[in-house]
Amino acid sequence: MPLRELNARFHHKDQQSFASVYESGRYIGGPYVEQFERQFAVYCGVDKVVSTGNGLDALTLILLAEKELGNLTENAKILLPAHTYIATFLSIIHAGMQPVPVDVSDILLTVDDLKSQIDKVDAIITVDLYGKLVSDEVYAFAAAQQKPVYCDSAQSHGAINSDGKRSGSLARASAFSFYPTKNLGALGDGGAITTDDHVLAAMARKLANYGRDNRFQNSAKGINSRLDPLQAAFLSNRLTLLDQDNLQRSKVAQYYFDHFTNDHVVTANVNFLKHNSWHVFPVFVTDRDHFQDYMMENGIETNVHYPLPPHQQEAFKELNDLSFPQTENLHLTEVSLPCHPLLSPSEIKKVVQVVNNY
Ligand SMILES: Cc1ncc(COP(=O)(O)O)c(C=O)c1O
Questions:
Q1: Ligand 1 centroid to 268 CA: how many Å?
Q2: Spans in the chain with pLDDT lower than 70
Q3: Torsion over CA: 230, 236, 242, 245 (sign)
Q4: Predicted local confidence at residue 108, as pLDDT
Q5: How far is the CA of 56 from the centre of ligand 1 (A)?
Q6: Which of 54, 98, 262, 344 is exposed most, by the fewest CB atoms within 10 A?
Q7: What confidence tens digit (pLDDT) does each residue in 204-215 have?
Q8: What does the DSSP 8-state code read for residue 132?
Q9: Given phi > 0 = left and psi -120 to 50 = alpha, else beta, which region is 278?
Q10: Which string of DSSP letters, residue by residue, matches 149-211?
Q11: What's the rounded Cα separation, in Å, for the pair 94 and 54?
């Protein structure tokens, strides 16, 4: 990911933002944070945005707020896909709840994946992994079972579902990360919660600020997790190009789908092309190391999202005995190909040529 080049597009605006924040004398909260929250709320089509220090905090704070409001209990069982980044698991642990991972039958959670556990859990976290939105059927099924759904939207900024609704507006509350490599990335850490529920938003905001009601009174045990005003200003600059960038990413993805002919390099199902922000373009290759070396020898840098699933990590020893064959296979075989808005037509063609010659 050519982060320097992607950010260079905002050089002038960022310099102005830096000068404005510097001169303002206001370095926590303030107008730039409020402005970005308003802009991101309008963009996502939700009533409320609560900005946070990072995506993990955003997800954790949603669960902590639900606990404080009595909507979820300590030790609540939270269903989530086994195939995700470890942060989804950690948010549940940090909120004092229990992760209930389920295997995925494809790449993201489906209704079938939920069925065996839905009666045993209190809530669900969906994950829009690689930028692809979890299907509307999952939300409808969970609603019919009266289970609240929260979304880990850390990779799906701007993705739109079949009803024209954006990522961030599909669950009871959603969590975004603005880590620099994300489709909407800051120049450091950042995160946000999006929701239509004003009570949940107010509680999350309070918990993100020590649980305080006013300067000297605290009515809950909160944490400190705030979006920096500089990052907020940088994010406002970048939000203006997000749709254009996502369109560019989707054109790259479509081109790959149309031109890959190599059976050894397996793409996601063609449905993956829809409702996707293409944070990552994943392919699945049985001899991953060899393939990555070959791509590198041909001047193409690849990545892996991710090599070892959370339930097999040392950090989650208590889950190490669980077996999720599809998740494990995805983690063993996934390779992320270049897919960003600055790829030139000749670079895209070269990726296709090199992949097809493998
Ligand atoms: C799926 C997913 N969830 C959560 C996170 C956590 O975000 P952050 O790094 O901002 O804490 C990330 C990003 O790293 C992610 O990719």
A1: 22
A2: none
A3: negative
A4: 98
A5: 6
A6: 344
A7: 999 999 999 999
A8: B
A9: left
A10: EEEE-TT-TT-B-TTSPBTTSSSSEEEEE--TTSSS--SS--EEEEES-HHHHHHHHHHTBTT
A11: 14
CA distances 16 to 11, 33, 187, 235, 241, Å, are 9, 16, 15, 13, 17
Q: Which of 1, 56, 129, 153 to mutate to test the pocket of ligand 1 (most atoms within 8 A of CB)?
A: 56
Q: Are 278 and 103 in contact (CB under 8 A)?
A: no
> Please, how many CA atoms are within 13 Å of residue 13, restricted to the half-sphere of its CB?
15
pLDDT single digits (tens) 170-186? 999 999 999 999 999 99
Alpha-carbon gap, residue 142 to 129, rounded angstroms:
19
Distance, in Å, from the CA atom of 68 to the CA atom of 70, rounded to the nearest integer, reads 5
CB 307 within 8 A of CB 331: yes
* Domain ranges in the chain with CATH number 3.40.640.10: 3-239
Query: What tokens were used for 188?
Result: 């450091």
Give me the phi and psi of 224, to 5 degrees please: -115, 110
Q: Residue 24 Cα, ligand 1 centroid: separation in angstroms?
A: 31
CATH architecture of 3-239: 3-Layer(aba) Sandwich (3.40)
Residue 78, amino acid: I
Q: Where in the chain is the domain with CATH 3.90.1150.10?
A: 242-356
Helix (H, G, I), strand (E, B) or coil at 52: strand
For 284, which DSSP code?
A: E
Q: For ligand 1, is residue 184 a contact (CB within 6 Å)?
A: no
- Token pair, residue 247, equals 């369109």
CA gap 128, 144 in Å, rounded: 21
CATH number of 242-356: 3.90.1150.10
Ligand 1 centroid to 172 CA: how many Å? Answer: 19
Q: Any idea what the Cα angle at residue 351 is, between residues 345 and 352, rounded to 5°?
A: 90
φ and ψ at residue 260, rounded to 5 degrees: -70, 130
**pLDDT digit string (tens) for 291-308?**
999 999 999 999 999 999
